[in-house]
Every structure is written in C-alpha cells, then in structure tokens.
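User: Predict the structure for this protein chain, please.
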Amino acid sequence: MQLLTADCVIPGAERPPLRPGAVAVDAGRIVALGTPDNMRACFPAARLTALGDAILLPGFVNAHQHGRGLSQVQLGYPDDQLEPWIARRRGRKAPDAYLLTRLAAQEMLRNGVTATLHANYSYATGDYEAELRGVIRAYEETGLRATVCVGFANQGGLVYPPTDESAFRDGLSPQAQALLSQTRPAYLPLQETLVLTDRLLSEYAGHPTISIAHGPAGPQWVSDAAWQSIAAHAARTGTGIHFHLLESPAQRAVAETLCSGAVLKHLEALGVFETQVSAAHFTQARAHDVEEALRLGLTVVSNPGANMRLFNGAPPLADWRAAGLPVALGTDNCALDDSEDYLSELRLGGLLARGTGAAAKANRLTLAMDTKIGAQAIFQPDIGTIAPGQRADLVALDPTRARGPYTDPDCDPLDLILGRCTGADTLLTMVGGDIRYRAGEPPAPTAEVAEMAAAARLAGPDAGVQAEEIAEALRQELPR
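Assistant: Here is the predicted structure, written as structure tokens:
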C-alpha cells in the first residue's frame, strides 16, 4: 500500500479538485482518495510519497502514435503532403522497430503519458511478426501501458485505388522502378494476420500493461473482403478496431469514389461497428460524416500538429465538440513542436476546440479529451480517472518547475496545467502503481538509436534521388 499526497488532486474532468489531496494505491489500483489527514488515518501503514506543491491527476493518454522515437525531420525528410512524405521513406533501409519504440515510450513517460495506442505501422522488413514483437517488448520493458494494434493492409501501398498501379510504375524511370522492386511485404496475408492476432490475444490475456487490438490501416488500404473478415474476428473475440480515417484530401477523394462518399456507412455494412471502434485524424470529414460518426458511436482521435504539418489542415475541433463528437488526442509522433511533449499538443487541441463558445467548461472538456475519452479510444475502460477500482495511472506536475518560480495561489490548477505546463514540469509518472519516471532521472541513452538510424540512412547510393522521383510522381496524382 502506498499513499501519494499533493497540494492538489484533480480526479478527472467531471469532479472538483481536492486541495490538498491524497490517493491510496494498492496492487496497481486506486483504493481511495480524500484529504491527506483522512487518508493517513485510514491507511497508517501505507508508504508515503509526498509530492509537495504538485498537482496530481490521471495520466495522459496518447491515443494514436506509431512508436517513432525519432521524428521525420531527424531522419532527414521534412514536412510535406502526406502521400509524398510517406513515399520518401522508400529511400531508406528499415530501422529497428524495437529501438525506436523504446525511445518513444521513454519520452512519453518523461512527458507524463501513462498509456498509448500503438497504431498500425510497418517498416516493411519482410518479417512483420518480428517487428511487432519488438514493439511489444519495448512497451513491456519501459512499463508504458500500450494497446498494440496488429496492422494489416492489402492494397494502395503505392497509389490509392482505383489508380492503376502498373501504369504508375511504368511512368517512372528504370532506377525508380528498381527501387520499388526491392520493397518487401509490409504485412502478413489476411489469414496469417488473424492467426497472429489470436496468438497475441492468448499470450497477453490478463497482462498488466499490454493489450491487443486490430489495426487495419484505413479504407483506402484494406479491401472490402478483408474488412469483413477482420470485423467478424473482432466481433467474435471482443477485440477493438483502430484505423486511419479521412486524413488527407486524397483520402477524401478515394472515399468519394470507393464508398460513394459515405465511408462510415460503407464500413458499417461490412460489420466494422459490431465492436469497439476508434479512428484517427478525420480531418477531411464533412458534416454527414460527423453525423454518421455520432450515430455509430465512433471515437475520433485528433492529431492536430500532424494534420497541419502534413498539409491536411487544422481539424475542426470546435465544430466536433459542439456536435458532441467524442474526441481524444494523439501526437502521431509528428506533434507541432516535433517532440513527445504531450501537454503542448493537448494545449493546441484544446485551443482549436474552444471556438467562440463559453469559457466556463473549456478546460474541463480538454482534460476529458486527454484522459476519459482517451481511455475510451484505446479500449481501456479502467484508466482515465482517479477513482476507487481504477488502475493507478497517475502523473504529478509542478507548474513552477520548468518556467517560473511563482503562480497565484488562487489560480485554478487546471488552468495552470493547460495554460502553461509542458512535459518538463512532470515530477512523477506512475503506471499501474509503479513509478516509471521521476524528475531528475537522466534521459534515456540514445547512442544506440542514433547508430541504428545512421546505418539505415539510405537503401542504396541513389535511393534518395529515386525516392524523391516517386514522391514527385505521386504528387501529380493528388487531387488539385
């Protein structure tokens, strides 16, 4: 049993803060909360962790990211439209998914993130299961709670359907075609994907921090027959489904063609919404898409920094909030300030969601985006609030630690967090009752990651030039 005390405890978006407050934790879960005096009287033998002037609140939930511990800028390809940006990766060798994910997880913990969803991703090594197991090992070793998606895609890997891929390849130089011919499979075939999912669901059943979900890449990357099979498996096993949805103008155009503009109705007809579902981005959604999302109970994960950096526009969060759409937040490893500083990205999302409406509940709704709705988006119902029975995923912040010695004692603590705090203000990050980060700890060693990234820099002497040719050819295919 341990007892954490702080100047302020914020139990969640819907409950007033305790000033001062205390939280009792045992066996990885919250037992009780109240005033420090009452909690000490109730649990006199508990080990005390006194956090002083800190603010203690539910841990942050990064509801959509890919375990990319080095950003695209660090790896040498700057911001661009999404599709050419993706194509530029073809000029590089596959990095080590374990090392990159471990670094990303360590950075998230340093920034107060206690839980994440690792979305569909592959470095096309030709051994997707090995990649995925490396990802899971990284989360296990760091202790970050993770919903890990088993990825799948079987179309649109080069150009979105219905564009003729053969014709597109024929229009490239022989050198660029040769680079494409070296591409290894990114994912397993469908039936092998389902078998792997079953195996992982069995292996990680009851695991304290790892959960498994389906990760079909998105409507333009997955055939209807595959969606049906994945949906049926998810419904039978009770497994959540998470995918990319209407991220870019090109994806919007594909949805118009393949799904007659009604992409969510199309997925509904394939059985996708027979289980829990969340989807990332949604930036290019139209009014009828929002209405369908509300009807179907879809939880959307917004990635505002990534959407703006990759030329997809700012997500209309104020309109979504006004409509009542449940929205969580993810960094997509492409946050506005090119780091895993989750609080800075949450501030951006909260500001975009304010619109011109009343201020009274704005920050409470932003906190819910991060914690309560974030938990829903990653299929983890027992995190996101500080309440008896919930998992003890907590973060302690000191608003004066990084950027100043004074704050008005009458200031609302949530206003301080969302108006001023950054990840550098994190004092302590706890996952399932275990402290996974304390302020003052040295940063994670990065020499091994840097060496690996340098070794994976180019797939061949002219690979960068050939990848650039492919990217520019793709740009010509994008809707004008």
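The chain has a mean pLDDT of 94.
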